[in-house]
User: Fold these one by one.
Assistant:
Number 1:
Amino acid sequence: MYSNSILKESLPEIQKQGVLGTARWAKNKAVTPTNQAEAGEELFKLLCISCHSVGGFRNDILERTSGMKVAEFESVFDEMGAEEAQMPPFAGTSKKGKPSPSMS
């Protein structure tokens, strides 16, 4: 089990469907142009809050991402579970809000 409570064996299916689509308690079931901020907040709460805070003392995500350009931030998602081995792999369908190639 990863730190975000996702079982390792469940990750491939969650990555196919997207964590928002599989989380029973998620209000937003997908990221759309009109709900990006709200869905992003839900994604953070589902995937990151167990180890990171927003403006708090525990691995403050604001401090860690301050000054990052979009490409740098996206590369963090690509590295999750690999170079960033302390973080579980990203459990979304896409790092850029578009369907993954396997979903097209």
Number 2:
Amino acid sequence: MPSRRLHPAGIGIYAVQAIGRALFPLVIIFGLSLLGERGGGGDWTRTLIYALIGIGAATLAGYVRWSTTTYGVDERAIHHHTGVIRQEDTDVPLTRVEALDVQQGPLQRLLGVYSVHVQTGGGGGKGGEIVLPALGAGAVSELRERVGAPAPAADESARLRLGFGSLLAAALTAAQLGIIVPVLAFGFQVAQQAFQDDNGRTAVRALPDTMGEWILLAAVLLGAAWALSVVGAGVAFAGFTVARDGDRLRIRRGLLSRREATIPVARVRAVRVVEGVLRRPFGLATLQMEVTGYAEEAAVARTLFPLLRVRNVRGALERLLPELADEPTGLVSPPTRAWRRYLFAPALAALGAGAIAAVVLSSVWPLALLMLGVGYGQARWHAAGWRLAEGRLAIRSLRLARVTVLAPARYRESHELAQSVLQRRARVADLRVDFGKKTAARIRHLDQGDATAAFKSLASS
């Protein structure tokens, strides 16, 4: 395949990218132009002129970048060239290419083109080593043929699809901290700004007067965050399909931006069964993967399947990843003497927080946090479990979500046995096994004999 340019739609895509990079300065210019002549018509005329100049400059930049970007394939490698002042040439040997991931965002869908990411085994970051943002369907097929990465042709028996009902359930129970935390942080910033204005007098008058009003305010903020989380999960997982195709997993997902990813099975180190707070009462979980080279990707990109019942986990893994198939239930609990150790730390932290809040609010109600701490410790104790049998390791723990790590012991990167002075007196120890940057299986306060035997067994596997 001789060197060629991208599809002409690449001009528009590069132009939009240029506008995106200049968005903040354009907003500043727009705001200054409006403030320059309040009430007059000249500000709008000047703003329109600035906008047209910006669009024209972005289009020119898009054309220049498109005209200087080429790609080609020979018997040795994929070649990519781009740039005018600063020119870049990238060669990826064909023997290193593990997948051609295809994506189609809203603009690309409108223009009828695809973005192709050339993935290798040692990328380790977001995107591909080469990104071709505008290829037609024919060019994608030809590139797949030349590289030796044919389009998916998986057996239906090794395919799972997320139906509409499951998608709705997944969205309603997602509770993604990546969305909830920024919303709460935004609320805090608004409150902080309000206190800075008018010496805070207006803000103080607006504060809730009763505990019920505080609870209502917290519920409103959490409700808004939950609604955004529902929308985000629905958009990310719409049309989710995963299939086993030989030694690869093929994953398709996305509503606004359609993504097709190929993951070599040999790079999957472990599976995480994640039972979120809203899903655990219904026996539901998400399957996530620890994939070598995908540590920098978002959690959604490491999702094997967004929602299924815990009792169906083994069956799903036997269809998709039989190399890692195991049962997430039937684990062995820590010894009974470790129970109080699971309760002590969260109970002490809750008591301290409640005491501080009681002093600040002049109320004894915050001391009820102690009961929450005790309940949390009890939940952690009840969730903890482990199993090491026939070379397969399963460890379950709880923070907010209950997470069970399933993996062959030989896939571990490291393992650690830790024991404090107090643990030595109680004859218990902590066991930790790392399978990658995002997956660390840890169980606390195991019987000392069991922990030592497991450590030695892992060392010999």
